[in-house]
Design brief:
single chain; about 375 residues; alpha+beta; 2 domains; 6-stranded mixed sheet; 5-stranded antiparallel sheet; 4 helices; 16 strands
């Protein structure tokens, strides 16, 4: 091969080289572009999968808390039943249940795992479960850079416990049937309110003896007096109540403005209401778990339960024949059917005694 031929070939190679480099650059750029597009598309899909995973884990935790509640209210369940319920719901939602543990009503771990196949009892102080679950999905474009699948992992905590009634109104009556003595003073019998009976619940004043009871209007927040009381009847916003327990009851005299009667009847006539029942009262708050040692004109009432009442009508604004049964002197009253006594506490409370009636108010709540 002559020198001229070699020189011509060299020049051809030099002219071709840039074209080869461009192909490499374009190839690398295409991979990067596909990776970026894949990041957007697969990232968006992963975000959607994260939401689906969270929903599945939420549902699994909720299912576990329901089994704990069932066990508490008298339908015996095992540790394994809790796991099975959680796993079944997780599977339906396409989530792999990896682990679970029991918690308190505040969602604090008890350090006790929920066991797959366990036959032992549910821990007595368990009021919730924390679930950890995962969901795996294939990628679309990210496979170009070697990422074939992505695992999304989430956790959720659901708790169960007594439910604070939204229809809790700020007036309390004794656990025993009450009448008035003709001078608008309370007379307390030994009889309990009976289910299914229509009663006139007289709102009598203080009895002539300290051992008796009376009704009490409740200023929940010790700040508003009578106006707050009727506002709490119009739009209840009661504080957290744990039953049984001692609570301060501020009696604002004979609270009988037309506004209060209107709030009762406009909002609650023909509906179920709940009011605290009391079985003891005290001048000062007794120590936790102890009975009153200072009976007298009370500020503190002991609430063991709620009364569930189907309210017919409230007669509060002045003397009327409905309340003044047999000339008992009552100037105000609630008329309604006694439905049940509910022995329960409030959302976020520890277990109370096992319920004794179907209207026991418990709830299951997702908290995390």
């Amino acid at each position: 091969m002559s020198y001229q031929e070699l020189d011509g070939m060299s020049q051809k190679l030099e002219r071709a080289a840039p074209h080869g480099q461009m192909l490499v650059i374009v190839g690398v750029a295409m991979v990067a572009l596909v990776a970026m597009v894949g990041l957007v598309i697969d990232g968006g899909f992963a975000w959607s999968e994260n939401r689906a995973t969270q929903n599945g884990v939420d549902a699994a935790a909720h299912a576990g808390a329901i089994v704990i509640l069932e066990d508490h209210i008298g339908d015996p369940q095992t540790d394994g039943d809790v796991w099975d319920a959680m796993e079944a719901v997780a599977t339906v939602n396409g989530v792999l249940l990896e682990e679970a543990e029991y918690t308190t009503w505040e969602g604090v771990s008890l350090g006790i795992p929920v066991t797959d196949g366990g036959s032992g009892p549910i821990p007595d102080d368990a009021q919730g479960v924390r679930a950890i679950g995962a969901r795996e999905h294939e990628t679309f474009f990210m496979q170009v850079v070697g990422i074939d699948d992505v695992t999304v992992r989430n956790d959720a905590t659901s708790v169960t416990g007594p439910a604070n009634p939204a229809n809790l109104l700020p007036v309390s009556v004794p656990v025993n049937v009450t009448s008035c003595d003709g001078q608008n003073k309370a007379e307390i019998s030994d009889d309990l309110w009976l289910e299914g009976v229509l009663y006139v619940f007289p709102l009598c004043g203080n009895p002539t003896t300290e051992s008796g009871g009376s009704y009490g209007w409740i200023d929940w927040y010790d700040s508003g007096g009578a106006p707050e009381i009727w506002e709490q009847v119009c739009d209840p916003n009661p504080p957290t109540i744990h039953m049984p327990g001692w609570y301060e009851v501020i009696q604002s005299g004979n609270v009988n403005p037309a506004k209060l009667e209107d709030c009762f009847n406009d909002n609650w006539a023909g509906k179920l209401i709940q009011i605290p029942l009391f079985d003891d009262k005290c001048i000062t708050e007794p120590p936790a778990g102890e009975a009153c040692t200072q009976p007298g004109s009370p500020q503190w009432y002991h609430f063991p339960a709620y009364a569930v009442i189907l309210l017919d009508w409230a007669y509060i604004n002045g003397t009327n024949d409905v309340c003044n049964v047999n000339n008992n002197g009552a100037t105000s009253c609630l008329v309604g059917t006694f439905v049940d006594a509910v022995f329960e506490g409030s959302v976020g409370g520890e277990w109370t005694d096992s319920p004794t009636s179907p209207s026991q108010g418990y709830t299951v709540q997702l908290i995390d």
